[in-house]
């Protein structure tokens, strides 16, 4: 984000009514954005009668029963483990092969580079469900269904188009002279890349990594179709609690599960707010 | 960079994309043209019951020499596509006589159109297409306006507040889509807080999950809630790059606040408006999680959810492939402007 400017801002001369309106509008927006999370967290620590009481209560007896039942009784810790394996696997492989490709695409001027980028753009627009019939069919026939490796490899591939486009825009910002200087000093291409370019690329790698993490962690469509109950990630395991509107305790375990999934994401935003914002605007501001 | 080095660097990534995106795409085309089923034959068994014996015919999968079920593959041509599109139902709906309205009077042209529209959208694919387009058409203008207003608002508050506002706004955007949809659904269940508040405010008891209209409304609401932060963040970043000279010049020339926004700020942000619109069009076209959570396809369906359902419930790879390909057709139309733009930009960059 840019620095705050010292030049007189339009805000300085806002009439009172406009300031009031802005204040009200922004308050409403913050409420709308955050209230679902606040309320979900609040009721996850309540018995069903208090969670969905008429009239709604702000204060109610506290219980951790749903979390206990979910994490221990329904073995949600296993799903947490699965999520960890899948996201870490996707993150590491995706960034490794993505960095190599993006670096080359940023430095190579031939026509093939251009066509690869265009192909990636088209792939990026494909709805994920388009590829699912093939995945399900092929991996089942090959006997590779319901395996961590399979899901990791699929998510890596689906993630590649986005990863190389984003990383490439970061590599473009690193002057070519840096590679050349390293090569003059006797580095090979790959040495120059690892020893000189990568160290200055960390902000870009972190930002891209955040979005790769989100893709793998948030995926429901593919994970729920490629894995059996025991190997499901937390997100796809939620489907078991999703339509339990008539079983109050099951529903509350779903609420506890949703809060459990959200907690790491909130921590992520707290620590990486700046990188997330820069990632969102990366492609946009430069056009 | 020499060509060979380039190839070495991009190889792993390109192989991954070819094997797991391009090849499966070709596979979907192949699957959509075939049908397959397990070969079964009927076996007659005599069942003894207290009231006598009875002969039952049960289907049993035929086994080959190795003991595996025999799978029959059959060339289907365009039949999977016809099933998904419901061509038979469409033809029937088209032919149906609608000259008489329910009251007995002759039906007006509008009534006849409405009846035809209802019959067509009763075919699952066209119903899903209808809601996908409705969702896209309603959410796009709302998130653009809302995102712009929030960006202007946040830009005008003191610095200390900006961080909090951006933090809160990022939550709906980055949260797991299924969780985001559920968190809103749990506010609108029959005894949930907002339903109860609305009742107390005198709106009457609204059963949000029971009818198509309110379900659709909530799905659209979730879409707006989730996509507005993206528009806001991008436009807010754009606002930081409005040159202050231009803005001051406008003010010195006597432009009021509205004129400055209209003639300086909005034109400056125009490329960003185009960018977020294109991204949102693509995202809206593949809306999935809110449908899954709120309706499960009843009353409101989307193309991506329909395909998912065919795959997960019917377990029909072939029909699902046909639905998936029909969906890609729409993406191609959406993508053309973006591809043309990239083509021009990159050509310039590479030249």
Q: Could you walk me through the main structural features you see in this protein, from its secondary elements to its overall organization?
A:
- With 287 residues, chain A is mainly α.
- Helices cover 75% and strands 0% of the residues of chain A.
- In chain A, helix 3 (65-73) crosses helix 13.
- With 351 residues, chain B is mostly helical.
- Chain B has a domain at 124-350: MetI-like (MetI-like fold, Orthogonal Bundle), CATH 1.10.3720.10.
- In chain B, strands 1-4 form a two-stranded antiparallel ribbon. In chain B, strands 2-3 form a two-stranded antiparallel ribbon.
- In chain B, helix 7 packs across helix 9 (212-239).
- Chain B starts with a helix and ends with a helix.
- The model of chain B has no long low-confidence stretch (mean pLDDT 90).
- Classes of the chains: A mainly alpha (287), B mainly alpha (351).
- Chains A and B meet through helix 1, helix 4, helix 5, helix 6 and helix 7 of A and helix 1, helix 5, helix 6, helix 7 and helix 8 of B.
Short description:
The complex is a heterodimer of chains A (287) and B (351). With 287 residues, chain A is mainly alpha-helical.
Name the CATH class of the domain at 124-350 in chain B: Mainly Alpha
State the total count of DSSP E strands of chain B.
4
Ends apart, CA distance between termini of chain A: 16 Å
The helix fraction of chain A, in percent, is over 70%
Helix count, DSSP H or I runs of 4 or more residues of chain B: 14
Q: From the 3D structure, determine the CATH topology of the domain at 124-350 in chain B.
A: MetI-like fold
Shape estimate of chain B: extended
CATH architecture group name of the largest domain in chain A: Orthogonal Bundle
Give the helix/strand class of chain B.
mainly alpha
Q: Architecture of the domain at 124-350 in chain B, according to CATH?
A: Orthogonal Bundle
Radius of gyration of chain B: 28 Å
Briefly note the CATH topology name of the largest domain in chain A: MetI-like fold
Main sheet of chain B, how many strands, which sense, barrel? 2 strands, antiparallel
């Amino acid at each position: 984000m840019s620095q705050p400017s010292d030049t007189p801002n339009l805000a300085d001369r806002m009439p009172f009514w406009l300031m009031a309106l802005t204040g009200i509008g922004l308050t409403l927006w913050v409420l709308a954005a955050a209230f679902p999370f606040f309320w979900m967290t609040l009721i996850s620590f309540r018995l069903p009668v208090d969670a969905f009481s008429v009239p709604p209560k702000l204060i109610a007896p506290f219980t951790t029963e749903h979390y206990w039942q979910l994490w221990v009784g329904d073995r949600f810790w296993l799903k947490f483990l699965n999520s960890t394996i899948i996201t870490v696997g996707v993150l590491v492989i995706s960034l490794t092969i993505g960095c190599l490709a993006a670096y080359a695409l940023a430095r190579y001027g031939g026509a093939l580079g251009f066509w690869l980028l265009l192909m990636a753009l088209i792939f990026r627009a494909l709805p994920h469900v388009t590829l699912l019939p093939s995945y399900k069919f092929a991996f089942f026939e090959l006997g590779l269904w319901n395996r961590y490796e399979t899901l990791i490899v699929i998510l890596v591939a689906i993630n590649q188009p986005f990863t190389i486009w984003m990383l490439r825009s970061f590599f473009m910002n690193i002057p070519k002279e840096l590679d050349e200087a390293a090569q003059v000093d006797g580095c090979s291409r790959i040495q120059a890349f690892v020893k000189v370019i990568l160290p200055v690329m960390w902000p870009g790698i972190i930002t891209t990594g955040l979005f790769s993490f989100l893709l793998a962690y948030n995926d429901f469509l593919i994970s729920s179709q490629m894995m059996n109950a025991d190997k499901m990630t937390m997100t796809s395991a939620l489907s078991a609690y999703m339509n339990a509107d008539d079983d109050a305790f099951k529903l509350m375990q779903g609420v506890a599960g949703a809060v459990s999934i959200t907690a790491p994401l909130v921590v992520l935003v707290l620590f990486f707010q700046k990188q997330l914002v820069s990632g969102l605007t990366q492609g946009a501001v430069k056009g | 960079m020499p060509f060979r080095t380039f190839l070495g660097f991009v190889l792993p990534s390109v192989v991954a994309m070819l094997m797991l995106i391009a090849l499966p795409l070709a596979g979907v085309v192949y699957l959509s043209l075939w049908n397959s089923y397990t070969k079964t034959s009927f076996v007659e068994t005599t069942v003894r019951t207290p009231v006598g014996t009875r002969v039952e015919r049960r289907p049993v999968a035929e086994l080959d020499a190795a003991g595996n079920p025999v799978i029959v593959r059959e060339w289907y041509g365009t039949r999977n596509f016809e099933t998904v599109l419901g061509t038979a139902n469409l033809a029937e709906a088209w032919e149906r006589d609608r000259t008489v309205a329910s009251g007995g009077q002759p039906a007006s042209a509008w009534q006849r159109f409405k009846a035809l529209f209802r019959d067509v959208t009763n075919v699952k694919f066209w119903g899903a297409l209808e809601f996908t387009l409705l969702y896209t058409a309603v959410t796009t203008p709302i998130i653009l306006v809302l995102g712009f207003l929030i960006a202007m608002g946040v830009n005008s508050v003191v610095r200390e507040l900006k961080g909090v506002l951006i933090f809160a706004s990022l939550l709906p955007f980055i949260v797991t889509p299924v969780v985001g949809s559920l968190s809103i659904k749990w506010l609108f269940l029959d005894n949930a807080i907002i339903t109860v508040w609305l009742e107390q405010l005198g709106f009457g008891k609204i059963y949000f999950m029971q009818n198509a209209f309110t379900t659709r409304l909530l799905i659209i609401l979730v879409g707006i809630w989730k996509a507005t932060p993206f528009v806001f963040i991008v436009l807010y970043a754009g606002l930081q790059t409005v040159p202050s000279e231009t803005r001051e010049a406008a003010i010195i020339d006597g432009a009021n606040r509205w004129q400055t926004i209209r003639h300086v700020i909005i034109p400056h942000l125009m490329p960003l408006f185009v960018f977020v619109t294109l991204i949102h069009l693509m995202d809206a076209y593949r809306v999935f999680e809110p449908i899954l959570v709120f309706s499960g396809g009843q009353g409101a369906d989307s193309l991506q959810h329909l395909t998912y359902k065919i795959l997960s419930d019917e377990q029909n790879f072939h029909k699902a492939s046909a639905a998936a390909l029909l969906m890609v057709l729409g993406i191609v139309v959406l993508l053309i402007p973006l591809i043309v733009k990239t083509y021009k930009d990159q050509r310039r960059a590479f030249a």
